[in-house]
Amino acid sequence: MSRTFLARSRVVSSLTAAALVVATLTACGGESKAPVSDAAAALGTIEPGVLKVAIQPYAPYTSLVGDKMAGLDADILNAVAGKLGLTVKPEVTDFAGMLANVQSRRVDITIGGVAWTAERQKQGLFTDPPYYSPPAMAVRSGEHYQTVEDLQGKDLGTVEGYVWVKSIQAVPGAKLHAYPDGNGVFDDLGAGRINAGFLDPLLVLAAQKERPELKVETQYLTPPSDAEVKEHPQYEYFRSYMTAFYLPKQATALEKAISEQIRAMYGSGEMTKLIEKYGGAPDQFLKPAREIAATRRGVDRPADWQPPSIS
Questions:
Q1: Backbone torsions φ then ψ of 56, nearest 5 degrees
Q2: What is the pTM of this model?
Q3: Which distant-in-sequence residues (6+ apart) come within 8 Å of 152 by Cβ?
């Protein structure tokens, strides 16, 4: 046997041994993922043990800070995911993309002031409401609108795809201004191009603090009566509405598990603390209006369903 062959054999043997060492270190090192529990795996997420979440930049409800979610909805879901043994993996899109990504099952869930509607539930699953959203308006300081009748003939703004689009279109003489995001609503409101903007209430409160030059204030609309809603069904979203987390139709186990955790957070006081953290009043955000239960009974909840509430 030649010396050259022996030398090559030693080189090959050394390389093979080194490769085995590297493979072993990689398998045992920090790159490996934590094991997924059987309970977490049974939730049926797209990637076992990982909760893929679609959000939009919508502080103080949802935002991305580094690679972590922040905001009211984010805090709620992060707490729920921790209890279920799931690792949260957020991705940022716009509101239309949030809904579409759920309906096509590119993500496991979307959050951030998403209103329950009978139309949306046909294409996805909604959790029990983590909180309820009172009928808030952003208006220019000095202007006052108390009833839907006061909005007739006015220029009214909201974000494309939000439930208030159809509500505004139903107001006699009102002109709808729809924007890609809430910033457009505030910009035009501050410039006097619209009279009022319909957005989630914590967003309006945040804008008052962060953009005082706009001279915007929060007003709460007097909810339309049952008779008014019967005559104009689209006025429903001028009342307090229920938010929820939205999941694909296939995600029945995950929806059930998240809803159970949401109810537990009402009972433990965790939800109250989170609402207060972001400036909301628990009595407004965590007590459903009397018509809320009937909205979902017999649609995507049993006939005896009771929405969660603080006492």
A1: -115, 160
A2: 0.78
A3: 171, 172, 173, 174
Nearest to 160 by CA among 175, 180, 135: 180
In a domain, 13, yes or no: no
Indicate whether 127 and 43 sit together in one domain.
yes
Same domain for 92 and 105, yes or no, is yes
Question: Please, are residues 37 and 85 in contact by the beta-carbon 8 Å criterion?
Answer: yes
Split into its structural domains, the chain has a count of: 2
Assess if residue 182 is contained within a domain: yes
Question: Distance (Å, rounded) from C-alpha 210 to C-alpha 213?
Answer: 9
Q: Do 139 and 216 lie in a common domain?
A: yes
Give pLDDT tens digits along the chain (311 positions): 443 333 333 333 443 444 444 334 344 444 456 688 999 999 999 999 999 999 999 899 999 999 999 999 999 999 999 999 999 999 999 999 999 999 999 999 999 989 999 999 999 999 999 999 988 899 998 999 999 999 999 999 999 988 899 999 999 999 999 999 889 999 999 999 999 999 989 989 889 989 999 999 999 899 999 999 999 999 999 999 999 999 999 999 999 999 999 999 999 999 999 999 998 889 989 999 989 999 999 999 999 999 999 99
Contacts of 97 (CB under 8 A, 6+ apart): 54, 56
Domain coverage including residue 158? 135-239
Same domain for 223 and 143, yes or no, is yes
